[in-house]
Q: What sequence folds into this?
């Protein structure tokens, strides 16, 4: 059988036993997965960064969570186990103190999770816990819950938005079922200097189109 390419769309819930940041912290999630032809291996082909914020005595701290390892696990008729390693980057830097932490856990459909039903496209809940290593969270426990739907990707064509004002460009990207992300200058006269993916690329609905803005005169 050919491998299955699919899209997970849902949300994440993150909690910790760290008294100053227990959570829960929620984020929308969307990432691509692949299940091999034998239906025994599942892979997260990408995994987005997750952001959370909490107040400290030094001000508001923003934590950016990125995947640093893992992402390939076991699949069997809708049951899933995926080891994953995460890095927690803290925005507040204290001289002489290492603030950042790492967390390894196994995301599993075992209770309190729930298997993929119906499979291979349906609802799923993955839950994993582990102990933080290093940084301000070291020694505490973090728990990640991911809930959502695994579905077949729906193709769409990336529109050409180069040299359009950023408001018009964003509207055209949204109309194509894609998500606009702007970098650079965001003044009222800003226009799209570069875009990625290129116009005409076949993408999946929900994918991101990144656009670099400039506010100089349009050529």
A:
């Amino acid at each position: 059988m050919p491998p299955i390419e699919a899209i997970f769309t849902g949300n994440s819930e993150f909690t910790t036993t760290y008294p100053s940041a227990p959570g829960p912290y929620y984020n929308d999630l969307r990432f691509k997965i692949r299940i091999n032809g034998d239906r025994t291996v599942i892979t997260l082909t990408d995994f987005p960064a997750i952001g959370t914020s909490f107040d400290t005595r030094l001000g508001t701290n923003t934590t950016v969570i990125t995947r640093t390892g893992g992402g390939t696990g076991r699949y069997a008729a809708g049951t899933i186990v995926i080891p994953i390693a995460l890095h927690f980057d803290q925005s507040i830097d204290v001289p002489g103190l290492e603030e950042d932490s790492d967390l390894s856990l196994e995301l599993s459909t075992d209770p309190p999770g729930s298997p993929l039903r119906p499979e291979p496209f349906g609802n799923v809940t993955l839950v994993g816990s582990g102990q933080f290593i290093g940084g301000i969270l070291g020694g505490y426990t973090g728990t990640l819950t991911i809930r959502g739907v695994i579905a077949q990707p729906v193709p769409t064509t990336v529109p050409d938005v180069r040299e359009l004002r950023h408001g018009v460009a964003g509207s055209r990207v949204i109309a194509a079922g894609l998500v606009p992300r702007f970098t650079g200058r965001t003044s009222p006269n800003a226009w799209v200097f570069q875009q990625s993916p290129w116009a005409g690329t076949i993408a999946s609905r929900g994918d991101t189109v990144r656009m670099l803005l400039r506010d100089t005169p349009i050529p």
